[in-house]
Design goal:
The longest helix is centred in the first third of the chain and has 15 residues. The C terminus is likely disordered. It is built from twelve helices and eleven strands. The protein is an alpha/beta fold. Strand 10, helix 10 and strand 11 form a beta-alpha-beta unit. The two termini are 28 Å apart. Helix 1 runs antiparallel to helix 2 and helix 6 packs across helix 11. The strands form three sheets. The chain has a five-stranded parallel β-sheet with strand order 8-7-9-10-11. The chain has a four-stranded mixed β-sheet with strand order 3-4-6-5. It is globular.
Length: 260
């Protein structure tokens, strides 16, 4: 539960004031020995802790997933293998897995999705990273429009979808090879562009380094760049921008809400 849920339960008579007080007295993390789960992260930043699955032992992964689900009622895991997903099912049978984005997730029912984020890819091979961005943003409550395979080798494909791209609160541009897509989009929109270089490409692409350098050196304004293949990071930042654009920042005061 987050702080708002606790307060609503007290208001509805489902939790006593003493129980709520005990909840808020807990340490801001849960000690597991091998991990310290940041149970107050959502309270501080508006986003609950997410599990990076790759490299974790099965035992650690299962315990972390189980604890976070119990705490939040939902959980997101990135960079997970199918084998890890099958293990997670033993403790969280409602978990879902997408083999393209390699995301394991359990979501609360009836979640609302606000605003609009456009997630664009240069090519079809960039879709796994784009899906990590898109599904991360959706998990955190953003509405996402996917605009795939609109790279600069066929610019007319992007131009045909510019109305959709320009109407978004922010754009995620995912590209490998030389990574030119972010620069093109950056010159055509008045919203922030989050550039995601991918490791897609031949030898001189250097596993995404060429695309990364192109995006960092873009002459178009309003472009921010995340790490190579970091779809999760792009989806997270895009959601922060989208929330601000929709006036739903978790840190807004009551006075600010009344003004709008």
């Amino acid at each position: 539960m987050d702080a708002k849920e606790v307060l609503l339960k007290v208001k509805a008579g489902e939790m006593t004031v003493e129980e709520a007080e005990q909840y808020f007295r807990r340490e801001p993390f849960e000690e597991l020995g091998y991990a310290k789960l940041d149970s107050h992260r959502k309270l501080r930043s508006g986003f609950a802790e997410v599990v990076f699955c790759s490299g974790k032992t099965d035992e650690h992964l299962l315990h972390i997933f189980e604890h976070l689900y119990r705490e939040e009622g939902e959980v997101l895991g990135t960079r997970a293998s199918k084998e890890q997903y099958e293990k997670v099912l033993s403790v969280c049978p409602q978990a879902q897995y997408d083999p393209i984005s390699r995301i394991i997730k359990i979501e609360k029912e009836g979640k609302k999705h606000i605003g609009k984020i456009a997630v664009c890819t240069a090519g079809t091979a960039d879709i796994p990273v784009a899906e990590e961005a898109a599904q991360t943003a959706e998990y955190f409550g953003s509405a996402v429009e996917r605009i795939y395979d609109v790279g600069v080798s066929g610019l007319h494909r992007l131009l045909a979808r510019m109305e959709s791209v320009q109407s978004a609160n922010c754009v995620v541009a995912v590209a490998g090879m030389e990574g030119a897509l972010a620069s093109v989009i950056g010159g055509l929109v008045d919203k922030p562009v989050i550039a995601v270089p991918t490791s897609v490409g031949y030898g001189a692409n250097l596993h995404g380094l060429s695309a990364l350098l192109t995006m960092i050196n873009s002459c178009a304004n309003g472009i921010a760049v995340v790490n190579i293949d970091n779809g999760y990071g792009a989806g997270y930042v895009a959601t922060q921008i989208n929330r601000l654009a929709e006036g739903q920042s978790p840190k807004r005061s009551k006075a600010e809400e009344k003004e709008t």
